[in-house]
Amino acid sequence: MAKRTREHDFPDKDTANRVFTHNLTALTKLALPESVTEEMERSKGSPLYKNWLIAKDGNEKARYKQIIEEQVRGLHQAIIDPDHGVLAWIRNHW
Amino acid sequence: MDQEPLVIDEIKAASEFILKLNEVLPINAAFWLKESDDGLWFLHLASDHVTYGNIGEGYGKVIQVSNDMPELLLDLLRVKLIPIDDPLAQAALNIYEHAPSNRPTRLAGAMFGGTSVDGVYLYPRSIMAPVSSPTS
């Protein structure tokens, strides 16, 4: 989102409101061009897409909750997997 | 945060999806939920066959069924699988115990499973699979 904002831009109020979230699904739709999100939709069935479904369940409010270890490990792996992880994919579309 | 409405098309699409998914992954409770400080509605699917250890496998079935329904207008990034012992799932099951089985339940501006929500749309129990394992 920062990359798409230029100096002296006057931000669109609706977008500015929506971007203040930790919700990965919302951020993805706001930050990425439609062509990229459509490409992701077309990749249904791939390990990457499954990792997206897992990673999007991450919730910043969980820091106040007791979480079982396997939940954290699954989320972590979906993000950092070097071949099909969400972080690697995001870096490719930075 | 903007207020995105839950539309009838999404409710209907998810209903069809739940019925189909039930054939490969029993769903015991299903509801759209919008948290108070979030702009999006998410379809929560609670299953006694899902744990945090096998949730990837569960999402694999979600993808498989979605691929079998190419006309389905349901964004899978809005679908959350949760184990049956999740507090949100338990709150839904608690309502199922008291609500008529063939009608949906709507809640607005309430606490639901310990979470502050703007709204919940709970699908009727009649389209759910029965819980087969003991809940904790």
Short descriptors:
heterodimer; A: 94 residues; mainly alpha; 55% helix; globular; B: 136 residues; alpha+beta; Beta Polymerase, domain 2; 5-stranded mixed beta sheet; 5 strands
Give a structural overview.
Helix content of chain A is 55%, strand content 0%. Chain A is mainly α and 94 residues long. Chain A has a domain at 34-92. In chain A, 19% of the residues are buried. By secondary structure, chain B is of the alpha+beta class. Chain B has a single domain, classed as 2-Layer Sandwich (Beta Polymerase, domain 2). Chain B is built from 3 helices and 5 strands. Chain B has a 5-stranded mixed sheet with strand order 3-2-1-5-4. Chain B starts with 7 loop residues before the first helix and ends in a 14-residue tail after the last strand. In chain B, 38% of the residues are buried. The model of chain B has no long low-confidence stretch (mean pLDDT 90). The A-B interface holds A 14, 17-18, 20-21, 23, 25-26, 28, 44-45, 49-50, 52-54, 56-57, 68, 70-71, 74, 78 and B 1-2, 38-40, 42, 51-53, 55-56, 59-60, 62-64, 66-67, 76-81.
Structural class of chain B: alpha+beta
- Extract low-pLDDT stretches of chain A: none
Helical content of chain B stands at 25-40%
Q: How many distinct helices of chain A?
A: 6
Find the count of extended strands of chain A (DSSP E, 2+ residues). 0
Q: Largest contact between protein chains?
A: A-B, 23 and 24 residues
Q: β content of chain A, as a range? A: under 5%
Give a short synopsis of this structure.
By secondary structure, chain A is an all-alpha fold.
Task: Please specify the SSE layout and strand pairing.
The complex is a heterodimer of chains A (94) and B (136).
Chain A: H1 13-19, H2 24-31, H3 34-42, H4 47-55, H5 69-80, H6 86-92
Helix pairs in contact in A: 4-5
Chain B: H1 8-21, E1 29-35, E2 42-47, H2 55-67, E3 79-83, H3 87-98, E4 105-112, E5 115-122
Parallel strand pairs in B: 2-3
Antiparallel strand pairs in B: 1-2, 1-5, 4-5
